[in-house]
Amino acid sequence: MEYSGFDCLFPQGNDMDAEVSRLENESNIKLPESYKRFMRCYRLGKGSLNKQNYLDSDINMQLPLISYSFNGDSSFLEMDAFLDVETALQDRPYDDNLLGEKALNLMQIAYTSVPSGGGVYIGLNPDNHGKVYKVDWDGSKDNGAIVIADDVFDFVSKLKSKQITANGVDFSKLYKNWGEDFWRVKK
After folding, report:
1. Cβ neighbours of residue 5 under 8 Å, at least 6 residues apart?
2. pTM of the model as a whole
3. Most exposed residue of 34, 132, 139, 185, measured as fewest CB within 10 angstroms of its CB?
4. What is the pLDDT of residues 108-122, one digit of tens each?
5. Residue 139 CA to chain centroid, in angstroms?
6. 8 A C-beta contact, residue 143 and residue 133
């Protein structure tokens, strides 16, 4: 199971123009056109990444089989999910010294598990409009905000999947039942 770039996402036509315009007006911001195109084409929010879940029958819970990292280096940035636009706009760090309106003016667009104290952000100022940033508050040497892509499409094109082996699943024993969207492990 290897995925990269846009294979990591679920295509989904979203007619969000009216909703996005309303949210932009309420927030008094202008979202980058590239990000608006991205929102129209792909699923956002929980389940936005194609993580290929399996059913762990011991705990009766679905767990992911793969994770996604930027540039294939999970120590750099490991993805959890893209935020839906309403959550992204509500969670903006308006008065933060680095990320707020008087500084870089960033909006978080994705959650990450590495770094856990940060995420993926997009620039909203005229000089960084649409640029994608990695924000890391975990105390690594790259602490703060660094530009990692020119826009959200450039960012997604560099995502790569990685099999999660810590759960001990034998990938050769995976199967799906008709109509199910998750894998099962043959006993």
Report:
1. 156, 157, 158, 159
2. 0.81
3. 139
4. 999 887 666 678 899
5. 21
6. no
